[in-house]
């Protein structure tokens, strides 16, 4: 693989991975405009975000077996096409219910990109390079909270909120063309894989029974769910409680993303000297300590806007280490059924993320305490699962910069 091929493949995989996050972040600043146009409330429009999360979680399980049965590209064509059609449908929505349903369908389509991109990392690159590649993908994904809210706000102001979905459809069409003409098929279809419900369920159960999978998948998913809590809770805390302007909200969102992106790249460099296991444990420990302090300070009313932003920044920066290393360690034992493993990992991330997102909205008491409590709880629980689960792994496939070895 030449350097140009390496760069282009990571770029395309990065854009595939970013479709979901862009779909979430780009329309956040337009809640008020959408609600006014559809004659409803911002809370009702917020349900379209919840339906998107639910669609993402459900779609993960749908595409896993399809990617293993038919190869990576054909299901990807179908999913991206569905996403484009649903995005055009969102432009024509005439009620909140229309938008909620169409966003669910849109999410089902975007799942193909999310699952395929992760599986193709496992296909295209040696296992010892996976954590590094995931870190590079985070650089592309990190553009979402940096650019998407700003672009969404500008599009809404000058062209109306419908232009957001037109833009998403257009970008996805370009990505689809890149996949068709430039990205190689990375996996030979396995006709032995059944698409009947029972064999599919048994295959997921087989993956779930692997100690290395459930340890790192659950630890990573629970820690990462704090990000979903932040995305859902940020408008409530920053705009409703601290009365931050929409422009300042975009700036804050970008700064938080910078922490996540920056430390994901620090993780890539740190992989030269440390194992993924070491980096994951260290990041979860820091996140847990800061999370506990965040909760305690919030409950006692010691934090203003700056204090809340400080602890959120620490939390998201730690995710720059946690996400890449947890993903690499979760998928390291798999080759034949990496698609199913990737799908199950993604479903756990999004399913748990949907719960934390829903929890922030339901527990909203016009303070930052619910957000702090959920973010703190996710870090504590994730670290506990990591420490306990490691004892169950007898033959661990470790990930380092230079080698991938089985640890006994």
From TrEMBL:
<dbReference type="InterPro" id="IPR020846">
    <property type="entry name" value="MFS_dom"/>
</dbReference>
<feature type="domain" description="Major facilitator superfamily (MFS) profile">
    <location>
        <begin position="6"/>
        <end position="394"/>
    </location>
</feature>
<feature type="transmembrane region" description="Helical">
    <location>
        <begin position="44"/>
        <end position="63"/>
    </location>
</feature>
<feature type="transmembrane region" description="Helical">
    <location>
        <begin position="343"/>
        <end position="361"/>
    </location>
</feature>
<feature type="transmembrane region" description="Helical">
    <location>
        <begin position="213"/>
        <end position="231"/>
    </location>
</feature>
<dbReference type="GO" id="GO:1990961">
    <property type="term" value="P:xenobiotic detoxification by transmembrane export across the plasma membrane"/>
</dbReference>
<dbReference type="GO" id="GO:0005886">
    <property type="term" value="C:plasma membrane"/>
</dbReference>
<keyword id="KW-1133">Transmembrane helix</keyword>
<keyword id="KW-0813">Transport</keyword>
<keyword id="KW-0472">Membrane</keyword>
<feature type="transmembrane region" description="Helical">
    <location>
        <begin position="251"/>
        <end position="270"/>
    </location>
</feature>
<feature type="transmembrane region" description="Helical">
    <location>
        <begin position="133"/>
        <end position="155"/>
    </location>
</feature>
<feature type="transmembrane region" description="Helical">
    <location>
        <begin position="309"/>
        <end position="331"/>
    </location>
</feature>
<dbReference type="Pfam" id="PF07690">
    <property type="entry name" value="MFS_1"/>
</dbReference>
<comment type="similarity">
    <text>Belongs to the major facilitator superfamily. Bcr/CmlA family.</text>
</comment>
<feature type="transmembrane region" description="Helical">
    <location>
        <begin position="7"/>
        <end position="24"/>
    </location>
</feature>
<protein>
    <submittedName>
        <fullName>DHA1 family bicyclomycin/chloramphenicol resistance-like MFS transporter</fullName>
    </submittedName>
</protein>
<feature type="transmembrane region" description="Helical">
    <location>
        <begin position="75"/>
        <end position="94"/>
    </location>
</feature>
<dbReference type="InterPro" id="IPR011701">
    <property type="entry name" value="MFS"/>
</dbReference>
<feature type="transmembrane region" description="Helical">
    <location>
        <begin position="367"/>
        <end position="388"/>
    </location>
</feature>
<dbReference type="InterPro" id="IPR004812">
    <property type="entry name" value="Efflux_drug-R_Bcr/CmlA"/>
</dbReference>
<feature type="transmembrane region" description="Helical">
    <location>
        <begin position="161"/>
        <end position="181"/>
    </location>
</feature>
<feature type="transmembrane region" description="Helical">
    <location>
        <begin position="282"/>
        <end position="303"/>
    </location>
</feature>
<dbReference type="InterPro" id="IPR036259">
    <property type="entry name" value="MFS_trans_sf"/>
</dbReference>
<feature type="transmembrane region" description="Helical">
    <location>
        <begin position="100"/>
        <end position="121"/>
    </location>
</feature>
<keyword id="KW-0812">Transmembrane</keyword>
<keyword id="KW-1003">Cell membrane</keyword>
<dbReference type="GO" id="GO:0042910">
    <property type="term" value="F:xenobiotic transmembrane transporter activity"/>
</dbReference>
């Amino acid at each position: 693989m030449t350097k140009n091929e390496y760069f282009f493949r990571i770029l395309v995989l990065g854009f595939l991975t970013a479709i979901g996050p862009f779909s979430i972040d780009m329309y956040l600043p337009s809640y008020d405009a959408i609600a006014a146009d559809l004659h409803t409330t911002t809370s009702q429009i917020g349900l379209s975000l919840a339906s998107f999360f639910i669609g993402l979680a459900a779609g993960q399980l749908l595409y896993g077996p399809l990617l293993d049965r038919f190869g990576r590209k054909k299901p990807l064509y179908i999913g991206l096409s569905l996403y484009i059609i649903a995005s055009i449908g969102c432009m024509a929505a005439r009620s909140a219910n229309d938008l909620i349903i169409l966003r669910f369908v849109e999410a089902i389509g975007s799942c193909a990109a999310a699952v395929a991109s992760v599986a193709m990392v496992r296909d295209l690159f040696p296992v010892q390079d996976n954590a590094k590649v995931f870190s590079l993908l985070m650089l592309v994904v990190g553009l979402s909270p940096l650019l998407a809210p700003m672009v969404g706000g500008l599009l809404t102001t000058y062209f109306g909120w419908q232009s957001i979905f037109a833009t998403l459809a257009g970008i996805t069409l370009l990505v689809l063309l890149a996949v068709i003409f430039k990205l190689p098929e990375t996996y030979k279809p396995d006709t032995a894989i059944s698409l009947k419900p029972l064999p599919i369920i048994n295959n997921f159960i087989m993956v779930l029974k692997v100690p290395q999978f459930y340890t790192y998948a659950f630890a990573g998913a629970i820690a990462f769910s704090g990000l979903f809590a932040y995305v859902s809770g940020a408008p409530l805390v920053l705009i409703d409680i601290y009365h931050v302007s929409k422009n300042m909200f975009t700036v804050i969102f970008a700064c938080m993303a910078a922490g996540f992106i920056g430390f994901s790249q620090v993780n890539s460099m740190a992989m030269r000297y440390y194992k993924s296991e070491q980096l994951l444990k260290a990041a979860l420990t820091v996140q847990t300590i800061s999370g506990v302090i965040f909760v305690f300070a919030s409950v006692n009313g010691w934090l203003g806007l700056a204090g809340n932003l400080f602890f959120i920044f620490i939390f998201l920066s730690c995710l720059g280490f946690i996400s890449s290393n947890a993903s690499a360690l979760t998928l390291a034992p798999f080759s034949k059924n990496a698609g199913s493993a990737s799908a199950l990992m993604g479903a756990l991330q999004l399913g748990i993320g949907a719960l934390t997102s829903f929890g922030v909205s339901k527990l909203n008491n016009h303070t930052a305490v619910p957000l702090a409590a959920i973010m703190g709880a996710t870090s504590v629980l994730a670290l506990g699962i990591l420490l306990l689960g490691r004892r169950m792994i007898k033959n661990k496939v470790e990930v380092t910069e230079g080698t991938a070895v089985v640890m006994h």
